[in-house]
Amino acid sequence: MISKLPLLQKELIEYASTKRLFILRVLFGLCLYTIFLVNWSNYTSSDNLYRVLGSGRWLLEYIYIINIIAIFVILPMSSACVITNEKEKRTLSLLLTTQLGPTLILFEKFISLVISIFSFLLISFPAMYLAYLLGGLTNKKILISLYAQFLTVVQVAAVGLFFSCYCKTSIKAIMATYIWGFALYIFFPFFEIFDNVSYYLEIVMFPPAFYYYLDSYASGPWEMFAYTIPIWISAALFLLGARHFLITYPQRMNKKPMAQKVRDDFHIVKRKVPHIRLPILWREGSHSSWPFAAKIFFILGAVIGVGFFGSLPSSRGNRHEFAMIIYFFALAICALFLTMRSVTLFQREIKQETWDVLLTTTMTTRSIFWQKAMAVTRFTLYICILLLCIYTFNLAAFPRSYYSSSRLPSGARWTYAVVFTFLIFTNIQWFMMWLGLTFRKNTKIALVAVGLIAAWCIMPILVSEFAREILGGSRSNYRVLALFSPFAIFIAVTDGRIPGYSNRMYTAMNIGFVIFAVQAVVFYVAASISSQKHIRVCD
Amino acid sequence: MSFVNIKNMTVRYDEFIAVHTMNLQIPPGEVFGFIGPNGAGKSTTMKVLATLLKPQIGKVFLDGIDVLREPKKIRSIIGYMPDAFGVYDDLSVQEYLHFFAAAYRIGWSQRKKLVDDLLALTDLTKKKYSQVDSLSRGMKQRLGIARVLLHDPKFLILDEPASGLDPRARIEMRELLKELRNMGKTIMISSHILSELSELCTRIGIIEAGKIVAEGSLEEIYTQLGVEKIIHTQILNYDDDLQVKIAAIPGVASVQKEQNRVEIHIKEQELKPEELLENLISLKACVRMFQPGAIDLETVFMKLTEGKTA
Fold first, then answer.
1. Residues 126-155, chain B: which have Cβ within 8 Å of A?
2. What is the pLDDT of residues A79-127, one digit of tens each?
3. What b/e readout covers B274-287, taking b as 16+ CB neighbours within 10 angstroms?
4. Are B142 and B52 part of one and the same domain?
5. Complex prediction ipTM
6. With contact defined as beta carbons under 8 Å apart, do B143 and B93 qualify?
7. For residue B265, what are the domain limits?
8. How many CB atoms lie within 10 A of CB A19?
9. Does residue B77 share a domain with residue B121?
10. Cβ contact, residue pair B102, A537, below 8 Å
11. Which of A137, A262, A538, B181 could form a disulfide with B51 if both were Cys (CB 3.0 to 4.6 A apart)?
12. What domain count does chain B have?
C-alpha cells in the first residue's frame, strides 16, 4: 500500500536516514526514563504497600506530561519544515505538477509526521506498562492518555502544516508555529474570568486536558469522541487552510509583496542618499532588523496587554499565575527569536547567495564579524528591555503575602532579574552565533539550536534530580546543578526561590551568576575564534 | 609580465579533485574566456582568484601579489561576480551600491558621483530608486557589474555573466563588457555561450576535468588544432571543372557546393584566406562574394573536450 504513496515512502526513507532524529530519540528516552526512574524510586520507597501499589496512576501522569512536552517541542519543528523544505529546495512546484494533487501531498506529509512523532512516543510504552503493573489506574485511563496524545499530535501537526504551507521559509514557519502554539494554549486560561466559558473551552480546545476530564465526563468511546469533535474540526480547518495555501503557492510565489507593489505603483521611493559608515550594521539595522523588532514589539505588546487585561479582573486571586504565564511566554518567544536570529546570522547570507560577494570586499573578517555581532547585540538589548518591562508587570501582580522569609525579597528579585536577563540572553546570543558560524552550512542548524535551548533549560534540572537519586544525600547538595538551567534561574527570579533551595537563595543566585558569566565569556571567545576560522578561507 | 599567474594549482574538495595541476598565465588588458563543460573546474578556479578558496597545492599571483599570502591586497584589485549571486532584496538600487561602496571603504564624498556614474554606465539610472528585487534578471546582472566596478578594480572575474539572460539582455551585457575591455580592464569571463566569447575575448582557455586542455588566442588554438576554416564564396562561373581546380590548390581541404554559394574549407596554417583569393582569381573564377567564416569556437570546444568532469 505504501508504494502507492510515493511521498510518504520518500519521507519515511528520509526520516530513517536522518542522524539527528536518532540522537533526539535517545535524548528523549534519557529524559523520559530519568524522570520515570526518579519518580519510581520515590513512590516505591514507601513502607506502605498500598501507597506503592496505587502509584501507577501518578507515574502514568508523569509519562503523559513528558510525552506531551515532547510533542510540543519536536512536532512543531518537523511539521513546520515539511512543506517549506520543498519550497526551499524548489521541488514543491514540481510536486504540484504531478498527479498526486495537493490533498494527497498534504495527506502523505501529515501521515509521515504522525508516524515520525509516534516513533518517539513508542519509547514510553515500556514505562507505561510498568506503571500499569503498579496499579491505581484503569484500562480506560490508559486509552484516554493515548487518545489525548494522538489528538495533540493531530492538532499540532495540522497547525505546523498550515504555517508550512503559508510561510516561505522554514525559519518563519517554525517561529509562527511555536508562537501560535503558545498563544493557542495560553489563551484559554484567560477565559477563567468567565467561569463557565473557560471550563468548556479548555475541555474542547486543549487536547492535553482530555486526560484529566474525559475520564469522569465520557462513559463510552462514542461519548469520548463526541467531546473531541471540536479538536477534529479545528485540525480539519487548519488542514483546509494549508490545502488552500498549497494550491495558491504557484501564484503567490510569483507575486510581488504588497509593500513592493505600493512602492512601484505610487512611487513611494527612498530618494535620500544613505550615509553609511558600517555597511552591515546599517543594513541589518535600518532594514531587516526593524520589521523584525517591530514584530517583537507587536507580539509582546499584545501579550502584555492581554495578560494585564486578563489578570486584572480575576476574582480568584490568582492573577500572579497569569502574570507568570505571560512572563514565561514572553521569555520563550524572545529566546526563540534571538536563537533564530543569531544562529542564522551567517547562514542567511549564504542562503541569499550574498555571502561570497561580501567576502570579496575589502572589509576585514573582524569587521564583518563585529558588525554582524553588533546588530544582534542591539537586538538582544531590545528584547532584554522588553522582558524587563513585562517582568515589572509580573512583579506587580504578585501579592506581598506571597513572599515568605524563605523567598527573595522584591528588591533582590528585581536586581537579579536585570542581571540575569542580560546575562542569559547574552549567553544565548554568543552561543548561537558560535553554533551558526561553526555549522553555517548545515541547513537544519536552526532546528538543532532550538533543541539545544530546550535541552539547556531542562537537562540541568533532570541531571540534578537524577544525581540525587543515584548518589543519595540532601537535595540541596545537587541542586547547584540546576543552576546551569536558565529556566531554573527565571523561576527563582519570579517565584523568589528555586525548589530545593530553602534559605540559601542568595548563595544560589550568586553561584548562578558566576556560572552564566563564565559561560558568556566562553561563548564569546569561542564565537570570536570561530569567526577568524570560518568566515574566510584566506585571511 | 602576466597579470594572472597560476602555477601548478590543485584544488581538492575532500577526495574530489576539482582542479588538477593547473598552469595559466593571462597578460594584462586581456579578456580571457574560460570555457569548459559543467563541473570542469571553472568556478573553482575563479573562486581561488577571488580569495574565496585556498588551493591545496600551487601558487597563484595576481599583478605580482600572492593571492594566498596577501588576500587583503588582492580584494582591492579584483571585482568578482559569481554565477549565482543574491541581492539584498530590502534595498533600493542606489542603497545597494552605496552599501558596497561603504564595504569597499570608498569615501562618502566620492560615493554619490561614483554611484551615479556607474548607474549611467550600466544604464540603470532610471531604476535608481527601485527595489533590487523588482529588477529583471538582466538588470540584476548589470547591477552586479556596477557593483564590481565600484572600487575600480584592475581585474574582473565574471562567472557566467550572461547565463539565463534573454537575447536582448545578452547583447546589452556584451556591449557593456566591450566597454570594460576598452577601459583597459583585465577580464576573466566564463560562459557557455561560445559565440559570445569568440566575439569578446582576446584569449581563451579550455578546461576539462580540472585541467587546461588548450590556451591562447583563438587563432593560435585554431592553428594548433588544425581546424579547417570555412570561406563562404559566390562564384558566378562555378562548374565541375573549376571545382576540381579549386580542390587541387594546396591547403584546400574540400570544396562543397551549397544552394547559392560555395564553401571552401582550408587549412589555415598552409593557406591563408587572402592567398586563396589570389589563387581563385588566377583560376579566372568570377568571385562575387568572398567571406571568411568566423572562427567556430563550438567546433574547437567539441574537438577538445569529451564532456568529462573533474
1. 129-131, 133-134, 147, 151
2. 998 999 888 888 888 888 888 888 999 999 999 999 999 989 999 999 9
3. eebbebbeebebeb
4. yes
5. 0.77
6. yes
7. 228-294
8. 7
9. yes
10. no
11. A538
12. 2
